[in-house]
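[Q] Does anyone have a clean structure-token version of this?
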Amino acid sequence: MVVMDVWTACFVDSKYSMMPEEVARLTSAYQEIGLDVNLQDLHTEDEIIAACGHTDVLLCNGNPPISRKVLKSLPDVKVVQRFGIGVNSVDLEAAAEYGVVVLNQPGISVQELSVHTTGLILDLLRNITYYDRGIRQGEWRKAKGIPCPPLQDEVLGLYGFGATSRLLYRIFHDGFGVKKIIACDPYLKKEDLPAYDVELVSFDELLRQSDILSIHVHLNKETYHSFDYEAFRKMKTSAVIINIARGGVICEPDLIRALQEGLIRGAGLDVYETEPLPTDSPLIRMDNVVLSCHSAFLGVNSRRLLHRQLIEQMRQIIQENSISRIPVANKGVISKIPAFQII
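[A] Here you go.
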């Protein structure tokens, strides 16, 4: 198809977690569908405003601040395209108000996220990193780790029961034979889950019952600091908590205090309130904590799927004047964009 109109895009954070060759391939693919991309490495609202004037699309690989101030200052922006699931760095209400479509990538990295979560859980329960650290420090910690109870008897608690949680359910229920899996998700009812032997519980019950508590929710006003000191006080002292969602769901100082006081056994973390994790964080020096650097999403297949999905979303907009409803994160904008066909 011959593209008559060329759109412009500002790739706000093109150096974030992507190799230069990946950026080059993606930029070339955007160019082929009629999107002229300006590569930037911006971190603040003012930097974005100064560099992205008169652009149609903001491309966001990480979580740059696409705030009300930014959106108000860039009146030509029509689309914000996030390269992942989370949109906590975008002011969705302001975007809808200004008629800006915010696209995310639902379903991306589901397998990678669930497998990485499994790795963190098994690492903590089997003391793998604890033993590894000891050997590297010249300590032979043979059988000094906390004995692991039978995995099938542990209660797996899931905070949020979306695509990643459901695959994690299959891994632990069908694979490891875990007998009891509970979930806290206020947007679901039991009749919505005929294929899953999962018990929907309140947040307090999730805290009280879980031996393994894994977080799989978006970061928003409802979930921000869900896990504070009082929440940790309600958990079992033998419990472990896993977070591959967003750092702000956990109040990090309260988690550190809970670990220091023995309120919970351990934590497996891929995300943090401040990234990179500060080098003076007590989490780094704790033997009952396993850390990875916001990389649970990474995988060969997920990268390929993500790039295809990004290009197809923009191709529909530029070449067909249409927008798929599913990836629109701010559904309130749909009534304000009559120029586009919603499919």
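[Q] Thanks! Anything notable?
[A] The longest strand covers residues 7-11.
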